[in-house]
Automatic annotation (TrEMBL), chain A:
Organism: Planococcus wigleyi
Family annotation (PANTHER family): ABC TRANSPORTER, ATP-BINDING PROTEIN
Descriptive protein name: ABC transporter ATP-binding protein
Location of the ABC transporter domain: 8-236
InterPro entries, alphabetized: AAA+_ATPase, ABC_transporter-like_ATP-bd, ABC_transporter-like_CS, P-loop_NTPase
UniProtKB/TrEMBL annotation, chain B:
Chain ranges passing through the membrane: 21-42, 111-134, 155-183, 211-232, 239-261, 288-310
Species of origin: Planococcus wigleyi
Pfam family, one: ABC2_membrane_2
This protein's UniProt keywords: Membrane, Transmembrane, Transmembrane helix
Keyword Membrane belongs to the record: yes
Keyword Membrane found: yes
Organism lineage string: Bacteria, Bacillati, Bacillota, Bacilli, Bacillales
Protein name stated in the entry: ABC transporter permease
Length: 308, 318
């Protein structure tokens, strides 16, 4: 299968402020229709990299190509393909959501009121759109920020920590738009975050940045792959008999850890094993499936799954 | 080009969506109205006198009365000589005094242009730095529009704002003036206070010249505030510096006046009126073209510095 087209390319990107090298040579590509997670602890250099991508700060060395156009030397032609929120979605507080969007609509030719309405309903802001943005909650401002970024149908959407300060339902909703944009509209989406748990569910690929360097670049495997073995933690009583029974049923080894048994199972095996155990009269108190191996992989790299 | 017009349109919306802008218009309107009421109530005696065909005789009679008043009344000793002198000027130059009217009221209100300069400085000081304060600069500068064009639209918005205020001042002054004093033909010759004495000319010309010359200080100080706000991204600093300089301008000139380089100081040159009042220019070697050149150099410096700061620097932090 052909790889989808490259939409954004970082070439040995460096940023020095004073004598301090903040970004130390980033090299990677993003493809159309891909959701790319830019993961790293606070202060790793995510925002600085994004600021260079959109031309807000100078590039010390290297380049960013957007649809093949250099952001350094061909700014207008490069940036027209980009929609972005850099850090917080800040709006004119004294203008309504609608008037805020009109501001940005006037800056690019060809954005009709019809398009603005379309975007407003996509992000679900119809009810509040004529209220002043200064009265919006953080979640509403985040939506308005996304609306602003999508007005001109960009092929690349860059969101810097879009889930910061949102509650779980807000996060789920943002995840829904982003997946839809990538899958249905073929937009490349770059999302930065310092939280691995969020990125795993959202992204196709994750790049890990630490101290201004890319330390890992991984595809996120979908766990739909049912033949893969997963670690299943089962808490049951009586423990010793349960272990004995399961050893008879399964060919694989069973480990004991605290009050839990750890089994390596395929996803589709899990219900039948549980039914059997219950049928045998065991009391099952809990079942945990370790979803991912990414966590282990990144944990050491990032140091922690940090929350500030 | 359509681009630039859209940008200016955006700036207008942001400007007039804020209450503080309307407060400026409101304040100006209140002050003009108040000055109209005060003129009407207190200065009515001289200003509303209608003179007949024998106006020379009437003026001479008035002067005799004024002189005799001065013998008896201490207060008149202070106020009457001005009116005496003015009446003499009318007689000598054969100009029939016109009753006070809306056009003369407009002329008297030209000192409000100082207030307009102050308001324009406030707008110029905020127009760039506020985008930084609000954080919206990050959304503004990631559009397919060059930074130069965005800066230009902001500068033009400042100028447009100043002109809007001046037109507003003129309109409200004429309206108030017409209501309280009526309107005569503005092209008639009038005698007006001019420096230490009196001068005459077509009222309309005098008004245009006066308002026109006041634009010089306005333009220079607004551009200065615009520069400071663009470089330091702080509106309070820009307002503080620009207003202080504007107020201290004359003192600076006075203080430095015995040095020959004083003629290159901005404030030595902002009063172009010095070339129209018949007196000697402020310093040796100065002429209208000299001052205009100096002003253009300062203006170019202010705008270049703003441009470099805005187009070359990183947009980082908040
Ligand atoms: N303008 C600046 N001057 C000096 N250091 C800066 C500046 N901006 C960012 N930094 C430093 O660069 C590093 C990366 O910051 P940032 O890109 O904001 O990280 P992240 O977005 O990943 O949290 C931090 O150590 C920060 O202190
Ligand atoms: Mg950041």
């Amino acid at each position: 299968m052909d790889k989808p087209a490259v939409t954004l390319q970082l070439i040995n990107l460096k940023k020095k402020i004073g004598n301090k090298e903040i970004i130390k040579g980033l090299d990677f590509e993003i493809h159309s229709g891909e959701v790319f997670g830019f993961l790293g602890p606070n202060g790793a250099g995510k925002t600085t990299t994004i600021r260079m991508m959109v031309g807000l700060i100078d590039i010390t060395e290297g380049d960013v190509l957007i649809e093949g156009k250099s952001i350094k030397t061909d700014f207008n032609n490069a940036i027209q393909h980009v929609g972005a929120i850099v850090e917080n979605p800040e709006m004119y507080p004294f203008l309504s959501g609608w008037k805020n969007l009109k501001q940005y609509a006037r800056m690019v030719p060809g954005i009709t009121d019809h398009r603005i309405h379309e975007i407003i309903s996509l992000v679900g802001l119809e009810k509040a759109i004529h209220e002043k943005a200064g009265r919006y909650s953080l979640g509403m401002r985040q939506r308005l920020g996304i609306a602003q970024a999508l007005l001109h149908k960009p092929s690349i959407l860059i969101l810097d920590e879009p889930t910061n300060g949102l509650d779980p339902s807000g996060i789920r909703e943002i995840r829904k738009y982003i997946r839809a944009l990538a899958e249905q509209e073929n937009v490349s989406v770059i999302v930065s975050s310092h939280l691995l748990s969020e990125m795993e569910l959202l992204c196709d690929r994750i790049g890990v940045i630490k101290n201004g360097q890319l330390v890992a670049l991984e595809e996120v495997k979908t766990t739909e792959n049912s033949t893969a073995l997963q670690d299943v933690f089962i808490e049951a009583e009586p423990l010793a008999q349960a272990k004995e029974y399961l050893e008879m049923q399964l060919s694989t080894g069973i480990r004991l850890k605290g009050k839990e048994l750890i089994l390596s199972l395929q996803k589709e095996e899990i219900p039948s094993i549980l039914k059997k155990m219950i049928g045998q009269g065991f009391d099952v108190y809990g079942v945990n499936v370790l979803q991912s191996t990414l966590e282990d992989k990144f944990f050491n790299l990032i140091g922690e799954n940090s929350i500030d | 080009m359509t681009n630039l017009i859209h940008l200016i349109w955006n700036e207008q919306i942001k400007l007039y969506a804020r209450k503080s802008t309307w407060v400026m218009f409101f304040a100006l309107a209140i002050l003009v109205l108040a000055s109209g009421i005060i003129s009407r109530l207190w200065d009515s005696e001289f200003q509303t006198t209608e003179y007949g065909t024998n106006w020379q005789v009437e003026l001479q009679e008035e002067n005799i009365r004024l002189t005799s008043e001065m013998d008896n009344d201490e207060l008149s000793k202070l106020s009457n000589p001005f009116q005496l002198e003015k009446n003499m000027y009318h007689i000598e130059n054969e100009i029939k005094p016109l009753p006070y009217d809306g056009w003369q009221f407009l002329y008297d209100n030209s000192f409000f242009t100082t207030l307009i300069s102050l308001f324009t400085i406030i707008i110029a000081a905020g127009i760039v730095s506020n985008e930084f304060k609000w954080g919206t600069i990050k959304l503004l500068l990631i559009r397919p529009i060059s930074r130069s064009k965005i800066l230009l639209s902001k500068y033009l918005t400042v100028l447009l704002f100043a002109f809007t205020l001046i037109f507003f001042l003129i309109a409200i002054s004429l309206l108030t003036g017409a209501l309280f004093f009526g309107l005569n033909n503005p092209t008639q010759t009038v005698v007006l206070e001019h420096g230490m004495g009196y001068a005459h000319g077509s009222l309309l010309n005098v008004i245009l010249k006066d308002y026109g010359l006041s634009l010089v200080t306005l333009l220079m100080m607004a551009s200065f505030a615009f520069m400071i706000s663009t470089i330091f991204r702080s509106s309070s600093m820009a307002i503080g510096l620009a207003v202080t300089l504007m107020l201290a301008g004359n003192s600076i000139v006075l203080f430095a006046s015995h040095y020959s380089w004083a003629k290159y100081i901005l404030f030595t040159n902002t009063n172009l009126g010095q070339y129209f009042n018949g007196a000697e220019p402020m310093m040796e070697g100065m002429s209208l073209s000299f001052s205009v050149t100096i002003l253009c150099i300062y203006l170019a410096l202010f705008l270049m510095a703003s441009w470099v700061a805005f187009t070359k620097r990183d947009i980082a932090g908040h």
